[in-house]
UniProtKB/TrEMBL annotation:
GO terms for cellular component: endoplasmic reticulum; membrane. One of its GO terms (molecular function) is mannosyl-oligosaccharide 1,2-alpha-mannosidase activity. The keyword Nucleus does not apply. SUPFAM superfamilies: Seven-hairpin glycosidases. This is alpha-1,2-Mannosidase.
Length: 571
């Protein structure tokens, strides 16, 4: 591993990005006066929401939007404040940002303010990522941001302990390669148990930045160890990994492959880390490409109605669940990013199709906001055991109209669909994406605005939806930021200068070079031949040709009872 560039030198270099050093962002973007007005409106909405948080919940993790009280679900360190910092700077709200610094300095990150353990994943992406991004975006002036991130870093580093190695097995005694899921900050010990793919694999952007700013290489070394351990485990297809691991053995304990919860951001970080480092170590990009390729071959389907492109959940043992989720809709934006870096027009085209499909879940919903999770019937799968909704049922009608039927109708102020629309805008330059984001912003304002700030919805299927008394900090970190960046000057968080973490905290790229062949021609869409989605041989729904069936469906009053039959039982 080469040593990271010293930060001041790095910032200088990136200030003078040559005009032709584009790879990711479309070269012809500009901000019209109309978009400027929209950006201002988003900014106003953000400030109003944050002021509500200040009034009712200052210092707590979240405002409780319906009761105008507060909640503490992130250990009580003021998650909304820390998660909002980079959004404030991106929006040019420097005074607001600086007004929070005394609070930031006062947080005691060694001691949770609420009983219970600390989530390694959430703490890294929200707090560590939020602090470091704010440090970089504010010109590396406010050392307190790094100091506080470092306090957390030392505590979280202890999640890589309690290993069973004995030295002669190539493993350091008492150390693990992957972190555990939960840390006890009082005893400084992790809760021994399994760890999800996303927890093991979503820290390398934040820890590389932390190592750079503290000059302590340990953080990056831990993150590299975790990524290396995951990449060394079972691949169910090249680049596709199971959902759960035992950190004492580095063995996979669940063969479920998905791009949804527990797994998503591991895949996301492979390409973003390659981007950050200029592809200094090709294994990350290559693993990402392998996974995309395998996902296209094994897990990508079109719906029989509407031909929307989505992926499945897939297990090598039990076959597919044909469902996709709001969380997994980060994927099209991530594919578009990687397609530009690896100049691959197939990935670009498929990424755009899935972005269209995710956008469709918003456009087709009565509120203009898409649901948390949905089912579809895959085209080209021969098994007659594929779940269908009952013809004539509410879900059957929904499927006939929309090409998906809702499994979970909540909206918890998640960003992923808008996030992918943002990438689609910055990468294709097609203004239709700005219109879609604007529609989503209007819908969120209309349906989620609450007595204090914004609230989650119990269902997006009703135009008089009940609201929940919860308001995640990622509303401020992510959703509002992606709304804003879609209308802002395209040079704000230019995708050729920054990579954006899974919590939407921008971090500086370390180099403008990307070591992967020559700068490609801009991908031109048009008559590009559509590649067949399904493999040449009909699939049985088990992720391979031949065989008999995957699972059985029962539709009882619109309820879906998945997979009774096992693929392997028939092979
Ligand atoms: C670097 O961080 C690690 C992990 O917390 C710590 O054990 C080590 O003492 C630190 N090194 C220095 C030089 O501060
Ligand atoms: C160390 O652990 C490995 C793997 O569990 C085992 O095969 C080996 O016998 C152990 N060595 C000692 C000295 O305990
Ligand atoms: C996938 O399933 C097949 C058939 O059951 C089995 O032979 C193979 O070992 C499995 N692959 C992995 C990586 O577990
Ligand atoms: C698909 O996988 C995700 C992540 O493991 C999970 O949350 C979801 O419930 C799965 N859906 C089905 C139908 O298995
Ligand atoms: C682009 O990606 C697709 C899907 O992974 C792959 O099949 C194809 O070989 C790639 N093309 C190039 C030129 O690398």
């Amino acid at each position: 591993m080469r040593l990271p560039l010293p930060f001041p030198l790095l910032s200088l270099l990136l200030l003078f990005l040559p005009a032709n050093a584009r790879r990711v962002q479309h070269p012809n973007l500009r901000q019209t006066a109309h978009m400027k007005t929209r950006a201002e409106e988003v900014k106003r909405a953000f400030v109003e929401a944050f002021e509500d948080y200040r009034t009712f919940a200052w210092g707590h993790d979240e405002v409780a939007p319906m009761t105008q009280r507060y909640s503490d679900t992130r250990n009580g360190w003021g998650a909304t404040i820390v998660d909002s910092l980079s959004t404030m700077i991106v929006m040019g709200l420097d005074d607001l940002f600086e007004s929070t610094l005394p609070f930031i300095a006062s947080i005691d990150f060694t001691r949770p303010k609420t009983p219970g353990t600390v989530s390694v994943f959430e703490t890294i992406i929200r707090y560590v990522g939020g602090l470091l991004s704010a440090y970089e975006l504010s010109g590396a002036k406010h050392q307190v941001l790094v100091d506080q991130a470092e306090v957390l870093g030392h505590k979280l580093a202890l999640a890589w302990t309690e290993g069973r190695g004995n030295g002669s097995d190539g493993k350091e005694p008492g150390r693990t390669n992957m972190p555990y899921t939960w840390m006890d900050f009082e005893t400084d010990k992790p809760a021994v148990g399994v760890v999800g793919l996303a927890t093991a694999g979503t820290n390398i952007l934040e820890f590389r930045s932390l190592s750079r700013h503290t000059s302590n290489r340990t953080f990056l070394a831990l993150a590299e160890r975790a990524m290396g351990a995951v990449m060394g485990t079972t691949q169910f297809r090249p680049g596709l990994y199971g959902e759960m691991y035992n950190p004492q053995t580095d063995l996979v304990v669940s063969d479920k492959v998905s791009f949804g919860p527990n797994s998503d951001s591991f895949y996301e970080y492979l390409i973003k880390y390659a981007h950050m480092t200029g592809n200094a170590e090709p294994v990350y990009l290559q693993t990402w490409l392998d996974g995309v390729n395998s996902a296209m071959e094994t897990m990508m389907f079109k719906s029989t109605v509407g031909a929307w492109t989505w992926l499945s959940n897939w297990s090598n043992r039990t076959g597919h669940d044909y469902m996709f989720s709001h969380l997994a809709c980060y994927l099209p934006g991530n594919w578009l990013l990687g397609a530009r870096l690896a100049h691959n027009s197939t990935i670009y085209a498929r990424g755009l199709e899935i972005a269209e499909s995710c956008a469709h879940t918003y456009a087709a919903s009565p509120t203009g906001i898409g649901p948390e999770a949905w089912h579809y019937v895959p085209a080209g799968v021969t098994s007659n055991l594929v779940p269908h909704p009952y013809a004539g049922s509410k879900m059957g009608e929904m499927y006939d109209q929309r090409g998906f039927w809702v499994q979970d109708a909540r909206f918890v102020l998640r960003p992923e669909v808008v996030e992918s629309m943002f990438y689609a805008w910055r990468i294709t330059g097609d203004p239709v994406w700005q219109e879609r984001v604007w529609d989503a912003f209007q819908a969120v304002k209309k349906y989620c605005k609450a007595p204090a700030a914004y609230a989650s919805l119990v269902t997006v299927e009703s135009t008089e939806p009940a609201k929940k008394d919860e308001s995640e900090s990622f509303f401020y970190a992510e959703l509002m930021k992606y709304f804003y960046l879609t209308f802002s000057d395209p040079d704000v968080i230019n995708l050729d200068r920054y990579t954006i973490t899974t919590e939407a905290h921008p971090l500086l790229l370390e180099t403008q070079d990307f070591d992967y062949g020559p700068e490609p021609e801009w991908v031109v869409m048009g008559n590009e031949e559509q590649q067949p989605l399904a493999p040449a041989t009909p699939t049985d729904g088990c992720g391979g040709p031949g065989g008999t069936g995957m699972g059985q469906l029962m539709m009882l009053m619109d309820f879906y009872v998945p997979a009774l039959e096992r693929c392997s039982a028939h092979q």
